[in-house]
Please model this.
Amino acid sequence: MSGGDEARGGHDFVRPFIMTGGRTRADRRDLRIETMLQSTVQDVPPELHSEQEELLLLCREPLSVAEVAARLHLVVGVVAVIAGDLIASGLLDVHHTDPVEIELDMLTKMIERVRAI
Amino acid sequence: MHANGTQPQPRTTTRIVPVKFVIAGGFGVGKTTFVGAISEIEPLRTEAAMTSVSSGIDDTTHVGQKTTTTVAMDFGRITVDETLVMYLFGTPGQDRFGFMWDDICTGALGAVVLVDTRRIDQCFPAIDYFEAKHVPFVIGVNAFQGAPRFELDEVRDALGVGGHVPVLDCDARQKESVKRTLITLLESLVTQARAREGVA
Model:
């Protein structure tokens, strides 16, 4: 892989690519905008860079990828890459669901909740 | 309190089920208003796509020429209980962002297609998409001032959707109307689930 070190320009625009090591695809392809992320640790290991740290602190309470992106002012793709690394390190847990896993009682609960709004 | 916190210690976490719904329709049809009417949080805005370049991405030589395409996407949340959370995502309105739809819609449990009767053709891409991907949807006919009034059956005919697709009036500014639209979608999902289980 060539060119990995060339992304040192001072551009803000390049910054996300440095943060993600030039990758634009998460290793975890199953991360979707509604996938919820949750830290597995209360304290952040010292060797992490600031975006990883911010993400872990934010996800002490479970938050979706989209919410993390909005709160950290990052695009969704960048959050997915950062999260992918943290998941691989065991620092972050994911919660997600496929539509086939939604059961009748969950639908009933959703209807009741929306009625109560 | 968390003296050993620097060691990644797997915590037993309760499984949480996030459920995604997509609010689609043409530009300015009221998608964000719909989300805002019912979300427990102020609708959040996030940027979806990061770049139009999708292959050969390990080579950063051409970073300077990369066209960064970011698309604003508004979304809201409704927490059902500690293990069940609903997310409502508005799709970007313009046709030219169609390439992003898979990113937004994959895994969606259902969708609401909002229709402006003055510009009825604007919702066709959304309907085509959800039909092709087998995402259940309802049609919400948003009544704008000065818009021609149609019977819902006329709208159904114009859209060419089957009888199994609920079509109802929906004023995105009215909370009760938005609630009714979302409940109609959920009830149609219940009906489908029952039919699958042979309980109907």
Notes: Chain A touches chain B through 62 residues (CB under 8 Å). Residues 1-11 of chain A have pLDDT under 50 and may be disordered. The longest strand of chain A covers residues 36-39.
